[in-house]
Amino acid sequence: MRCFAFDLGRVLFDFDYEIALNKLKNKINCSSKEVIDELLSNNFADDFEKGLISSKDFYAKFKAKFNAELSYEEFVEIWCDIFSPKVEMIALAKSLSLIYPIYLISNINELHFEYLFKKYPDAFTFFDKLILSYEVKSLKPERVIYEELKKQSNHRYEDIIYIDDRHDLIHEAKQFNLSAIHFSTFDNLITELNSLNICLPDKKEYETLKDLKEKIQKHKNILLVGIGNSLKSDDGVGVNIIQKIKNSTGLNILDAGTALESYLSKISNSGNDLVIFIDAAELKEGETFGCYETKDAENISLFFTHDAPLKLVTQYLQSDLSFDILILAIGAHNFSFGESFSEEVKRAEILISSFFTKTFPAKKPIKK
């Protein structure tokens, strides 16, 4: 599985030092151009972004350099209030986080990060790890910060899709063999990701997986049951997903094939408090997949390719139900013998198997 590493400035958040300079113009004894040149061209804040000096030391350095007359509290407010979220990009990163490991790698100082995290907490909580320059004492494009990304992600450089707005950092990242994408616009990024065959969940797919994640997290022991005939094209998607994730998810799994009725006793006595049946179905046009409780499935137009076994399951299991049941239905289009999955089902298989692997991974063995 590949993973993503997002830059912060001008990728997830825009920033504009002119906002701060307009507030500072009557508090400093130099031109705005001098301040900008120092910040952007002369690396004035590098030691701060590397975490080599404290916030108060940087404030003192700023005051001395620019003959500034303001309190520390005034400085912090002005220095930090320069950001605005790029809502579309944050939503994209959040949706990807259900499918892929996702990391933030940023040249940033302590004041800016603490301000952003406090004001926009939802923009950070979905990341698996935050690799911040002031914490790792290294700035991009130095080797140390990329090595930290590699270590935290447990991925090879070539499997990390790194997104940054700066051409120079993209160039240097490619020297480490990262799969680097220069960010210019949202639409261009989507085009780049499609060219890499990255499967991007749409809004409905994201909401379905998000809802499924929340339901699973309310239970302790979960059993995934794959149903289907692997010889009949899309009909085999349920069992194919089970086979694909059997070594990579921490959830319990069962490949029931076409003989679901043979496993009813085993399912009933498995000790799980949630059972999720994964099967092909005829859904409404445009629907990739959906997640339903049994009571909902009876009231909507779902025509399962294994209708009798599923009805038998619900009748048998609900007679003495000690666990919850969900049906993860995948829209099928082709049931011909010996043919591969339709493109729609290939997409659903990637999204669902990646979701279970990423969100509920197998536990790593404890090193002795």
In short:
The protein is 43% helix and 17% strand. By secondary structure, it is α/β, with parallel strands linked by helices.
Describe the structure.
- With 368 residues, the protein is an alpha/beta fold.
- The chain folds into three domains: 121 residues, HAD superfamily/HAD-like (Rossmann fold), CATH 3.40.50.1000; 65 residues; 157 residues, Rossmann fold (3-Layer(aba) Sandwich), CATH 3.40.50.1450.
- 43% of the residues lie in helices and 17% in strands.
- It has 17 helices and 13 strands.
- Strands 8, 9, 10, 11, 12 and 13 form a six-stranded mixed β-sheet that branches. The protein has a five-stranded parallel β-sheet with strand order 5-4-1-6-7. Strands 2-3 form a two-stranded antiparallel ribbon.
- Helix 13 links the parallel strand 8 and strand 9.
- Helix 13 packs parallel to helix 17.
- It is elongated, with a radius of gyration of 26 Å.
- The two termini are 27 Å apart.
- The mean pLDDT is 91.
